Amino acid sequence: MSECAFLGFTIKGKKIRWTDKALADFKHRIKELTGRSWGVSMEYRLKKLGQYLRGWTAYFGISQYYRPVPELDEWIRRRMRMCYWKQWRWPRTKIKNLLALG
């Protein structure tokens, strides 16, 4: 089976998918945007993350490879929870905010 890669896509047979390098670059950028030591507000962080995710999904939306998407979604949500947990910092604040969220 032949394989061709171009502009972040690879063509395997009749299927179009993103390359492993494109996925690695995506994960690296998400790690930068959801880093716990990046001292920005959560509003700004969510704005930048939303812009990047919309752009990435618009570009790679023609891909016919959807299996890892739910796992990527779970991973990104876990990274965002990690950022909130770090921001809340103290146990009293964590309890107060978790109770406020229900």
Features:
single chain, 102 residues, mainly alpha, three-stranded antiparallel beta sheet, 4 helices, 3 strands
Describe how the helices and strands are arranged:
Blueprint: E1 3-6, E2 9-12, E3 15-18, H1 20-33, H2 42-59, H3 69-88, H4 91-101
Antiparallel strand pairs: 1-2, 2-3
Poorly predicted regions are none
Distance between the termini: 52 Å
According to DSSP, the number of beta strands is 3
| Spatial strand order of the main sheet | 1-2-3
Strand content: 5-15%
Q: Sheet with the most strands?
A: 3 strands, antiparallel
* Structural classification: mainly alpha
Q: What order do the helices and strands follow? A: EEEHHHH
User: From the alpha-carbon coordinates, what is the Rg to the nearest angstrom?
Assistant: 17 Å
Mean residue pLDDT = 88
List the total number of helices: 4
- What sort of overall outline do the alpha carbons produce when their principal axes are compared? elongated
- What is the number of domains? 1
Helix content range: 55-70%
